[in-house]
């Protein structure tokens, strides 16, 4: 339904509307990941002491823990759809939170609200700037995006260390946490609302605008995109810039939740978001952006992480469980694709 | 027909994942889910890096104390240091409403608000190692790191005859716990032993290989170098190999922080001259003990925060001569309990 693929729009139902709808829902990768999410929530709820995993506080906790992951996964899913990678996301979160944080601290005397707003804007601008740099290196310098973002990963980490001299920034206004980071609106944590709203915008753009089709065209066949006159370079730079802006928002959420930067953290963020996007049905060879799947994929990692803590299992199991789910989900998706004759592993083989 | 088989296959796979997870959870969860005694308290602990032998030793101390007082311990923490992950582990753990929580905080600021919230709700929070920027915890236990630095400086000065050049291989510039391990040493050396020159701090990020190449570079660049200090076990192993490769064992002494099993064996073999170690075992033990004794008072309502910054736990300077002594035992880190 929301799996956007240029080459294969779902065929019109031949007989039995209801059965067709069912087939389409069940054939959607997001459906199965959502089902695993629900199953895990049920299991953890049953196993948790007094079923506390099912309480409002627990769901709020899941939501706020998912906010940053959702933003990064949305960004990387869009890039994967266009056939590009970004492994600099975690470093970009750190750098944009550091630069935004510096601005906020410097403006502290100018009043709390302007300082917070300008700090937030700086975070987003810095994230977008880093994204644009990635896009320019990929297009203008002709460096493969995996290598390009590996390079900017190092550059951003080093820059953040240089700016902070390696120690975390602190001393942010308390309102940063009370007004945004730990604020709950209508029962939903504000950072999660913001992330969900931006996810919604990305979904709408991909589904209903020409840009969405173009992004997928880039990933389906770069050559035909060029031949059909798409301005590939410009499109890619804008795409990297916008997904970088999402990362910048995650950077702001980071400082506003914890009241400090997290210079030595976020080292596995990028790989986690690629994993979540792939669990949700994204292909490493481009051409599809199952954004809903990415949403449930991002949730899956957080449910596992929080759920295993609640049932009191050793933290090491969390890594193992996430790895198992990643492999299993991709395997199932491959099988589904092969059977339904969609371009999956076959095309992957052709291209490699 | 085709549709059904496909669906069935997917369902099998799905059931497989669910079953696997369920088996893993119930299989391992059953051992820890045996409460029921009237005075059995549930204690949760959240540490900065569950995979570090330092925190493994802390876990052993905490487990021993929990067993002694009939408490049930839920040990949590990210598998690599990350403030965000540790805070969310704390928030998640607090949902299960344990009777008490012990934290080993990685950030001095990020934990202030959650600890305040948890204490206000009537759950005592103790800190084992580390300190927060505000006095909001019920009790804080760690070694006097400045005193440890001073003791290390003194031992270094006496081993070198108060003259020499020191190279430091630290972890990474963003780690406040690591920073404490050399800041006091440098301060005391500069104030009291001006004969010892301190080279700029190098960072090896707990990588043995990187420590080796950094140490090799320092040894080549500074022939006058006669002491190297590594801030943790893996780095000490790297530095020791570089000293051996440069055949400088006689002229360069290696000092290191911590007392991991590897470091202790190198201390015994002479590759390391001196170790300085805290006792994570005692920190964990006291953190749990303070929680249980507060709970036994049966007080309800918000928990009062401590007025003193921390309760000092001992540290020890270990050399070949005293490492075998029984008094040194609580300072040697464990790779597993029992």
Topology, number of strands of chain B? 13
Name the overall outline of chain B: elongated
- CATH architecture of chain A, please? Orthogonal Bundle
The whole-number mean of residue pLDDT values of chain A reads 86
Low-confidence runs of at least 5 consecutive residues of chain A: 5-13, 343-352
Mean pLDDT of chain B: 86
Major sheet attributes of chain A: 2 strands, antiparallel
Order of helices and strands of chain A: EHHHHHHHEEHHHHHEHHH
| Percentage of residues assigned to helices of chain B | 40-55%
- Specify the structural class of chain B: alpha/beta
- Within the CATH hierarchy, at the fold level, what is the topology of the largest domain in chain B? Rossmann fold
The CATH superfamily of the largest domain in chain B is Response regulator
Q: Beta fraction of the residues of chain B?
A: 15-25%
Main interface pair? A-B, 69 and 58 residues
Q: Kindly report how far apart the N and C termini of chain B lie.
A: 57 Å
Number of domains of chain A: 1
Specify the structural class of chain A: mainly alpha
- Order of helical and strand elements of chain B: HEHEHEHEEHEHEEHEHEHEHEE
Q: Give the class-level CATH name of the largest domain in chain B.
A: Alpha Beta
Alpha-carbon Rg of chain B, integer: 23 Å
The CATH architecture designation of the largest domain in chain B is 3-Layer(aba) Sandwich
Q: Can you put this structure into words, describing what you see?
A:
- The complex is a heterodimer of chains A (about 350) and B (about 350).
- With about 350 residues, chain A is mainly α.
- Chain A has 15 helices and four strands.
- Chain A has one domain: ABC transporter involved in vitamin B12 uptake, BtuC.
- Chain A has a two-stranded antiparallel ribbon. A two-stranded antiparallel ribbon of chain A has the order 2-3.
- Chain A starts with a strand and ends with a helix.
- Residues about 5-15 and about 345-350 of chain A have low confidence and may be disordered.
- By secondary structure, chain B is an alpha/beta fold.
- Chain B folds into two domains: about 40-145 and about 280-315, Response regulator (Rossmann fold, 3-Layer(aba) Sandwich); about 145-270, Rossmann fold, CATH 3.40.50.
- Chain B is built from ten helices and 13 strands.
- In chain B, helix 2 packs parallel to helix 10, helix 5 packs across helix 6 (about 175-190) and helix 7 (about 210-220) crosses helix 8.
- Chain B starts with a helix and ends in a 20-residue tail after the last strand.
- Chains A and B meet through helix 2, helix 3, helix 11, helix 13 and helix 14 of A and helix 1, strand 2 and helix 3 of B.
